[in-house]
């Protein structure tokens, strides 16, 4: 019995030791994962994190706000004028959640083929948020409005990542079109820190788009003109790239493939073959026009990078045309054939590289504070290009950067 008891003790010790080893391995794996996140500037917002209460409230508020959109009319229609000023107010314990222009953003999501259920799962899942620490001077937290008890309002903008999917992206840049404070010191070779470089780091390089260059220039002109009209500045052109695989360089460019891409460009990725909504406000397709006619009337070249898709025949509608200040604004749309892979709005393929391109940080208004900053920087950086300039100068400068850095 005594010997048997000794065996049981040994067996128990071995089991405990095995469990301890397994637990130790899990701890080491978790530690390595956390270290990797730290190296990449990612931190898990757990219960000990200062933002944990905020993110819990944010999840709850977003879940209920999106649930309201799910319960609303499901059919996709062009937002009415009142939709742009819509404000949904929902009370929660300790805070109030306000969602602005909800029907408009729902329309945008539907036009991209994103369901409300998928959007809700992405924002309000049971998993923990990750905090991304960037080298941005704004010190913004990358996590619409929440008012918390005894705290100032916090504003959030939810947007699709330009760098998605990011598994093979080998370079990332934040471009403002100027030189002052626009250099990021590269990490030592072998470092795993995820870096976003700036204008001066990009000097000596070009964006090689071939036939799609003219589309990018025109789109940059339209976007910067729009932001200039809103009197904003300090926005950035995000740029990432990755080498194309050999099979990606030789994709099939059959007539059928081009037709599908054309329809996707005109009707939106959520409906590649049928038009469930008008693509622009104030115009509709001519009655009697069929899909076959649209296909027959579409011209294609033998090159893969056709820069724009022909618009289906359209006509003015009396009352709706007044929604836009000038019909030329409608006709100024700059269409291109959207690619058949993820994130098509931000992705463009050149001969050798795939580029991820988009404009972000569009909420800085050129008010008194920025005007005073401009005056101070004009004296400190006399004769140099710095970021805080008038919206018209800022827009022109960013367009010039794209023009001189693309071939």
UniProtKB/TrEMBL annotation:
InterPro entries on file: PInositol-4-P-4/5-kinase_C_sf, PInositol-4-P-4/5-kinase_core, PInositol-4-P-5-kinase_N, PInositol-4/5-P-5/4-kinase
Positions of the UniProt region annotated as Disordered: 266-318
GO cellular component: plasma membrane
GO biological process: phosphatidylinositol phosphate biosynthetic process
Keyword match Cytoplasm: no
Biased composition (Acidic residues): 284-299
Bias type Polar residues, positions: 268-278, 300-309
Entry keywords, A to Z: ATP-binding, Kinase, Nucleotide-binding, Transferase
Start and end residues of each PIPK domain: 1-406
Keyword Nucleotide-binding included in the entry's annotation: yes
GO MF assignments: 1-phosphatidylinositol-4-phosphate 5-kinase activity; ATP binding
SUPFAM superfamilies the UniProt entry points to: SAICAR synthase-like
Secretion signal span: none
Name of the protein this chain belongs to: PIPK domain-containing protein
């Amino acid at each position: 019995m005594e010997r048997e008891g000794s065996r049981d003790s040994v067996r128990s010790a071995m089991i405990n030791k095995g469990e301890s080893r397994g637990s130790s391995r899990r701890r080491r794996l978790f530690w390595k994962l956390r270290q990797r996140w730290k190296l990449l500037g990612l931190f898990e917002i757990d219960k000990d994190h200062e933002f944990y209460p905020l993110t819990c409230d944010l999840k709850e508020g977003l879940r209920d706000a999106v649930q309201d959109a799910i319960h609303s009319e499901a059919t996709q229609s062009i937002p009415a004028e009142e939709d742009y000023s819509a404000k949904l107010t929902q009370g929660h314990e300790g805070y109030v959640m306000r969602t602005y222009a909800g029907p408009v953003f729902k329309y945008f999501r539907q036009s991209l083929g994103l369901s409300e259920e998928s959007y809700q799962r992405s924002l309000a899942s049971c998993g923990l948020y990750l905090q991304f620490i960037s080298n941005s001077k704004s010190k913004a937290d990358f996590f619409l409005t929440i008012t918390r008890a005894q705290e100032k309002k916090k504003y959030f903008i939810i947007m699709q990542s330009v760098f998605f999917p990011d598994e093979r992206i080998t370079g990332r840049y934040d471009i403002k079109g100027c030189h002052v404070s626009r250099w990021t010191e590269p990490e030592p070779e072998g470092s795993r820190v995820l870096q976003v470089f700036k204008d001066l780091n990009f000097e000596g390089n070009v964006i090689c788009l071939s036939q799609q260059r003219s589309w990018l220039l025109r789109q940059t002109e339209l976007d910067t003109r729009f932001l200039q009209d809103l009197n904003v500045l300090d926005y950035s052109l995000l740029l990432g790239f990755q080498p194309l695989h050999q099979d990606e360089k030789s994709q099939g460019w059959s007539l059928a493939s081009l037709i599908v891409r054309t329809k996707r460009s005109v009707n939106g990725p959520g409906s590649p073959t049928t038009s469930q909504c008008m693509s622009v406000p104030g115009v509709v397709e001519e009655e009697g026009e069929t899909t076959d006619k649209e296909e027959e009337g579409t011209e294609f070249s033998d090159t893969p990078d056709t820069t724009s898709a022909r618009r289906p025949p359209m006509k003015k509608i009396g009352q709706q045309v007044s929604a836009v200040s000038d019909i030329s604004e409608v006709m100024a749309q700059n269409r291109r054939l959207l690619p058949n892979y993820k994130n098509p709005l931000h992705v463009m393929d050149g001969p050798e590289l795939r580029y991820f391109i988009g404009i972000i940080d569009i909420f800085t208004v050129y008010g008194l504070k920025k005007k005073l900053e401009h005056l101070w920087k004009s004296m400190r950086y006399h004769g140099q290009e710095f970021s805080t300039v008038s919206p018209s100068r800022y827009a022109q400068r960013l367009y010039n950067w794209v023009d001189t850095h693309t071939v």
